[in-house]
Amino acid sequence: MVRAEIITIGDEILYGQILDTNTQWISLELDKIGIKTIRKSSVGDQRDEIVQILEEAQKRADIVFITGGLGPTKDDLTKKILADFFNCPLAYHAEALADVTDFFAKRGRELSDINRDQALLPTKCTIIPNKQGTAPAMWFNEQNTIWISMPGVPFEMKAIMGTEVLPRIVTHFKLPVIVHQIRKVVGIGESYLSDLIQDWELQLPAHLKLAYLPSLGIVKLRLTGFGQDKVQLQQDIDAEFEKVMPLIKGFVFGREKDELAAVVGQLLVTNQATLAVAESCTGGYLAHQFTQHSGSSAYFQGGIISYANDVKEHQLGVSKAILETDGAVSEACVKAMAEGARKQLDTTYALATSGIAGPDGGTEEKPVGTIWIALAHPNGVITRKLTQGGTRIQNIHLSSLTAINLLRRYLLNDLAE
Hints:
Layout (H helix, E strand, L loop, with lengths): L1 E8 L1 H4 L7 H11 L2 E9 L3 H14 L2 E5 L10 H8 L4 E3 L1 H13 L6 H4 L3 E3 L3 E3 L8 E6 L2 E6 L3 H19 L4 E10 L3 H13 L5 E8 L2 E10 L2 H19 L3 E3 L5 H11 L4 E5 L5 H7 L8 E6 L3 H8 L3 H6 L5 H15 L3 E7 L14 E8 L2 E8 L4 H20 L6
Parallel strand pairs: 1-2, 1-3, 3-8, 13-14, 13-15
Antiparallel strand pairs: 4-5, 6-7, 7-8, 9-11, 9-12, 10-11, 15-16, 16-17
Protein name: CinA-like protein
Organism: Aquirufa regiilacus
Family: Belongs to the CinA family.
C-alpha cells in the first residue's frame, strides 16, 4: 500500500476565510489509482509549524502533497522552506522563467520583479509546468519520499494533478487496486444496524473492510477491497453484500449516487403513479426533495404548504372540529391533510406532515420534535408519529426523509399497516 499525506498551507484556511476543497479532491483522485490517504493537515503561514509538519509527514508517508504558499508575496513561504528542508539553494529555473514571461506577454502585461521570482525554485526540484497560472509545481524525490508542491488555487491544482502529477505517480509506483462499493440504508440507526449485521461483519475476508458512514437519517455501508485484480474484487464485494442483504433488504434503498427521493420517483414512474404533498412543519422541504431531481414532473404533481390552520381547513378540507379538538399536530389532522391533497391534486398518492419543528412551540403533551406524517393511497391512509429531539432543520429533514421512506416501503409492499 502506498501511503499519502496531504498538507494545505495558508492562514486563510485556518481562519475559515477559504474552504479547503483541495484535500478532498486530491484524496478522491488518489483513491482511484490505489493510493491510501493516511493523513490530512492544514497549517498556517508560520515557518516553524510548516517545518514540523513536513518532518512528521516524512516519517509516515510514501508521497506528500502540499498545496498553497507558492504565490509571489512575502507571506508565501513554501519554496524557501522546501529549499532549506532539502538543503539546497533557490535559483532561477530557465523553463519556469520562460513560462512566466510568456504568461504575462500573452496578456499584454509587464513582468515585474516580484512575478519574475515565481521562477526562483529549489535546485533539487523537478519543475511541473502550470498552464493555468504563474507558479509552477515542484516534484522532489528526497529522503525516501516523493514530495509534490502545488499552487493552492483549486483550478490550477486540478489541472496540474490531472495532466502531470497523476500520470507520473502511476509510472513511479507499483500500485495496488482499491475498490469501493456502497449500499445506502434508511430507517435504522448506525448502532442498531451494526448490531444487526455484526456476525456477517466479523466473518468478512481479510482483504475486505467495512465502514459505516452516517449522515442525518442515512447510513452508508461501504465495503472496500484491496488487491491486484479489480474484477475479482468487485465480485468478492458483490458476494458479501448478497450474504447480508436478507438482514437489511428492507432498509437498503440504493448505491453510491442514489438519492432516496429520486429512487422513490422511479418507483412511481414504474407504477405509473403520481404524488402530491401537503406540508405544515416541513414548509416545502418535502416537495423540494422530489423536485430537485430532473424528471420529477413525470410523477410529482404539486403540493400545498398549509402552514396556517385556515389553509388546512379551506385548501385541504381539514374540519374545524379536528383543528379545535385534536389540534394541527395530530393523527386526525395529518390524515385529513393527506386525503385532501390527494383529492385536490388528483394523484395516486399524497404525503403529509404536521408537527412542532422547534425550537419553540412545544408543550408537555406535544414537545418539540413531535411530528405526524401520513401517506394517502387508493385504499386508505397510513400514519406514523415521530418523536424527535433535534434542531429545527434536523426535525424538518428527518420528517421529510421518513415520509419519503414510508412511501418507498409501501410501493415495495414492505409495509405492515
